[in-house]
Amino acid sequence: MTIKDASAQTVLDRIETLRRELRRHEYLYYVLNQPEIPDEAFDEMMRELDRLERERPEFITPDSPTQRVGGQPSVEFQPVRHPVAMLSLSNVYSEEEFFEFDRRVREGLGGAACRYVCELKFDGIAVDLRYEGGQFVRGATRGDGETGDDISANLKTIRSLPLRFTVPGPSPVLHVRGEVYMERADFERLNVERAAEGNPLFANPRNATGGTLKNLDPRVVAARRLKATCYGLWFEDAHRNGWTQSRILSWLEEARFPLSSHWQVVDNASQAVEYWAKWSRRRHELPYDIDGIVVKVDDLALQQRLGATAKSPRWATAFKFKAERAATRLVDIVLQVGRTGAVTPVAELEPVLLAGSRIKRATLHNEDEIRRLDLRLGDCVYIEKGGDVIPKVVSVNLEERREDSAPYVMPDHCPACGSPLVRPEGEVVRRCVNLSCPAQVQRNLEHFAARGAMDIEGLGSKLIVQLIRAGLVRDPGDFYYLTVEPLVPLERMAQKSAENVVQAIARSKSRPLDRLIFALGIRHVGAGAARILARHYGSLDALRAAPLEELQAIHEIGPAMAQSIRDFFLAPENLEIIEKLRRAGVRLEEERQTARELPLAGKTFVLTGTLERFTREQAGERIRERGGQVAASVSAKTDYVIAGPGAGSKLERARTLGLPVLDEADFIRLLGL
Ligand code: IVH
Fold it and tell me: What secondary structure does DSSP assign to 470-488, as a single string?
């Protein structure tokens, strides 16, 4: 920016001094917890900066401390594709299981022992923060691991997260990964406020964090005092440059990111167990919830060698703490019919507080489990929250059993349709095998429309129940033939909402293939497997035609999954559904982003000299990602020559031919970075 007059320069100098100071005090206060000045002095500086920026809006930059809570509430979050999938972690629950993890790691590395980094496992919401040239540009949720929601505006309100860093980074573009969480005291305070306002309470700090991050108004988020802790850094080629997890954590510390200081490098698995045992005892001393520790192979090159499964890396695991327990009374046992007809008994309990949440239901898995526990109505039971979110009944206090209690008898008819339940030989579950059982039909339809599947907004279970009752839908294919008219008279519907639902259904026709595969509800095929299948086959028809052996040969697809995929496509009623979808215009193929739609489509680039922010390879990749091509030599067909310092004959030739020559700054602009 060119500054015309001296007074403008003075204002800009003052603005920059204030920003520097405010950033330092934010760091001292929010990251280190060691404020040097009273809050009033901080607020005073912030007000001065805000005033100067209002007078001179041309000086406002997105990383100014005044820009943390800005703008209007948004209407929805934009999807963000993660450059590298955000995987989750495998879990181990005991020392034995942890040693087994360590054994697998060593085996994977050819027998050698390796150093681990132990960290606390924060119980919050995973986020990804993208920085370009040291500036925060975007923050996103994990979402389904591949695509999350852009929640930048909400993340900017977390004062400990730097909007820029000034130490040299390992790469011009990098992603910091971490966890957003809420301290227990802030959570309690929030619930007290909500109770006073008559709003529903959050069950635990994690839910409160998730709910807050999804709030569309950053001002609400700013008031909730979310915290963040960082544990990961992703940049290209990290594993090739001698980086380690401990170096990443040190770098994050140096770059002033918030992170827990309790991490530790250990030489072997036994030391990791000691770390786990220490924090199992001491977890309650922390002002926030942790649900275990995370153990990671330190060396990134070794991490790379170990690789990952579809869901989680092989070089790290979450080592969970032992479950917390509570006692309560069993009021009733109800049967739930799942999507595949499996009937699951669920315990209805007298509400009780367990590990921070109010519990009134717990899973009982199956009838064998009820028999094993000899569970009877009215019993006093112990419930536990293990690794799962859903609590389970673990035992009965027999001393408190009422004398007149009788063993529980599992009903042998489906609670939804009355047909007899079947328990196939060798299986523990009873199933309702009536394909038109309303409970199953309903669950299938709910699954199809759910987030993560076809994601049809407004098509929730209440509406689905009504659609079934009114005879408007029997299978997912029917959704696409719904019209506005018959929806209007349904409960809680009107002209506008009916139109919205029909439009939302129409929009879902172009969901990616993997979502469709997942939505079909093929047994054992989760979202991750659906992605693998979509990528492998590229169309639903190709998947349908895939022979069993071929499916089994795909690394991540096990025999049970392969068989159930085959079974699914052999059933005539499923083929009928697929035909209905096809006729309605639902996309049954992987979308190929046509090269024509990309910003650099059809353009040919030649790179010469050295660039500061990118290696040659990285620059080439950026160009290709945007639809362009990279050529080795300059010709009349070249559209742009990107020249850095040290450029030689290619640059000369470009000049002779009169081709556009861009320097690195122009190039970055052209890439839209
Ligand atoms: S590393 C690929 N480290 O745990 C490895 N995760 O299922 C990715 N979490 O919600 C995770 N503390 O956000 C890692 N110190 C830590 C963590 C941590 C909490 C969360 C993570 C995700 C879940 C992993």
Answer: TTS-SSHHHHTT--SGGGT
| Amino acid residing at 542 | A
| Residue type at 616 in one-letter notation | R
Q: Is the CB of 119 under 6 A from ligand 1?
A: yes
CATH number at residue 450: 1.10.150.20
Nearest atom of ligand 1 to the alpha carbon of 120: 15
In this prediction, the residues of the chain whose per-residue pLDDT falls under 50 are 387-388
Q: Which of 182, 294, 297, 298 for mutating ligand 1's site (highest number of atoms within 8 Å of CB)?
A: 294
Residue 44: inside a domain = yes
- Helix or strand or coil: residue 74? coil
CATH number of residue 378's parent domain: 2.40.50.140
Q: Please state the separation of Cα 345 from the chain's center in Å.
A: 30
From 270, 289, 319, give the residue that closes a domain.
319
Domain range enclosing 179: 90-319
Asked whether residue 611 is domain-assigned, the answer is yes
Q: What are phi and psi of 327, to 5 degrees?
A: -110, 140
**How many domains does the structure of the chain reveal?**
6
Q: Whose CA is nearest to atom 12 of ligand 1?
A: 121
Tell me, yes or no, whether 531 and 553 share the same domain.
yes
Q: Are residues 560 and 459 in the same domain?
A: no
Q: What is the CA radius of gyration of the chain?
A: 29
Q: Do the domain assignments include residue 519?
A: yes
Helix axes 205-213 and 184-197, enclosed angle (nearest 10): 70
Give CB contacts under 8 A, 24+ apart, made by 278-287: 279/120, 279/321, 280/321, 280/322, 283/321, 286/120, 287/183, 287/184, 287/185
Residues 552, 563: Cα–Cα separation, whole Å: 9
* Domain co-membership, 337 together with 294: no
Burial of 33 (0-12, 13-18, 19+ CB in 10 A): exposed
Ligand 1 atom nearest residue 88's Cα:
7
Alpha carbons 432 and 182: distance in angstroms, whole number: 43
Q: Is the pTM of this model over 0.70?
A: no
- If asked whether residues 130 and 13 sit together in one domain, one would say no
> pLDDT digit string (tens) for 94-149?
999 999 999 999 999 998 889 999 999 999 999 999 999 999 999 999 999 999 99
- Cα–ligand 1 centroid distance for 189 (angstroms): 26
Helix (H) or strand (E) holding 188, with range, is: helix 184-197
